[in-house]
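Whiteboard transcription, Tuesday session. T.W. wrote the structure tokens on the left side:
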């Protein structure tokens, strides 16, 4: 079995770096509605964490991943209709969520989407 990295940054069908993974991650979020629902979870998870810690509601810590992933997984199932990258790349997907959110907040998401080839996606729409 070869361990040579191909032009997509993959070895044996798996991404070996976050920089190679992130364009794939963006392509998996081609539809704006998918991204917006991800942003809901991206904001909700830290708010739930802060609430649980401030109020010392320790069972609330269980809601942190639920609040973050619920909206993302629903959007993949019913909007984007693809499998969340979280199942294959859990840590990189988490980092990707926050990087995508930061790019959106700073007005650089459209450029990143274009660079990743999202604008060529048959269902993609501009608008971040």
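and on the right, the sequence the group agreed on:
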């Amino acid at each position: 079995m070869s361990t040579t990295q191909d032009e997509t940054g993959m070895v044996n069908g798996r991404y070996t770096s976050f920089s190679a993974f992130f364009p794939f991650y963006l392509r998996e979020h081609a539809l704006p509605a998918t991204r917006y629902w991800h942003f809901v979870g991206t904001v909700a998870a830290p708010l739930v964490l802060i609430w649980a810690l401030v109020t010392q509601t320790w069972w609330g810590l269980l809601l942190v991943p639920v609040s973050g992933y619920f909206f993302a997984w629903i959007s993949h199932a019913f909007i984007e209709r693809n499998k969340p990258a979280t199942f294959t790349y859990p840590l990189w997907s988490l980092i990707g969520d926050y990087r995508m959110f930061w790019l959106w907040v700073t007005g650089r998401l459209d450029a990143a989407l274009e660079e990743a080839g999202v604008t060529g996606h048959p269902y993609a729409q501009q608008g971040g």
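Someone added at the bottom: DSSP finds five helices and two strands in the chain.
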